[in-house]
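Data availability (excerpt). All sequences and predicted token strings are deposited with the supplementary files. A representative entry, Transketolase, is shown inline so that the format can be inspected without opening the archive.
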Amino acid sequence: MTGFALLTATQQPAPTPPDQRERFYALLPELLASDPRAVALLADIGAGYVDAGPAVADRVINVGIREQLLVSAAGGLALTGMRPIVHTFAPFLVERPYEQVKLDLGHQDVGALLVSAGASYDMAGAGETHFGPRDVALLDTLDGWTVHVPGHADEAQAQLRAALPGDDRVYVRLSGASNARPYGTGPGMTVLRRGNRGTVVAVGPLADRTLAAVEDLDVTVLYAPTVRPFDAATLRSTLSEPDVVLVEPYLAGTSVRRVAEALPDVRHRVLGLGVGTAELRRYGSPADHDAAHGLDADGIRRSVTRFLS
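Structure token line:
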């Protein structure tokens, strides 16, 4: 057979992991059907992808491109006993309606399940208006939030199902990036490997590239699909050398304070890797932004090696 190369099993391209956002849209009707209190609130984003069906269609509300109203309506519905599932892109869900998140949910002490898409720069071609690296840091200024950062669609699905029955405030940060397989759904960290020269905490979709970056380094790697509450107990119990590297897919240094709070009696060093504050004015692709922020495997390796040496 001229011109053809038969791929062996080991040469076959790896299957593409399922998309987290698509999984959420497919799961949403099931979530609504499973709980009569559940109501989905959209701001145009996703409205064309949700096939709710007649049984739950009256509990899918599209408020249009009005993100402050989106969150305020969630607060009002929560006051009546409903369980709002609120969805749009990350900067439109946390940054633009921050006052409503603070007052209409937090100050009124009601719960909602906020589900974002787009992560830090999934929609690179849309530019700064659609970039959301500050979301977790902003929620850190408020009380009582659980924050999930799934690294695989299976993890996101499990976290969404677990979060629906409650009345607390939960944020699920969906990303277009993904690990090849699920590592755990939280809330605690999972030990991916053990070492003696320090600890690297890989958050959500950055686990695979972090493992590749430190493949031949003598370090412990912890996987965190849930970042709030921060799993201090696992960090402490697996600590070898008191050197900790955080690899987070949002604003660099967001969880540095949490490490300090976890190790108040241990002299330690901590390096927070993540998205920098400098605005990158060339749109590029998500991979270009990863490289520019040092969040590709090569960049993570350079930073970890420099820090530990």
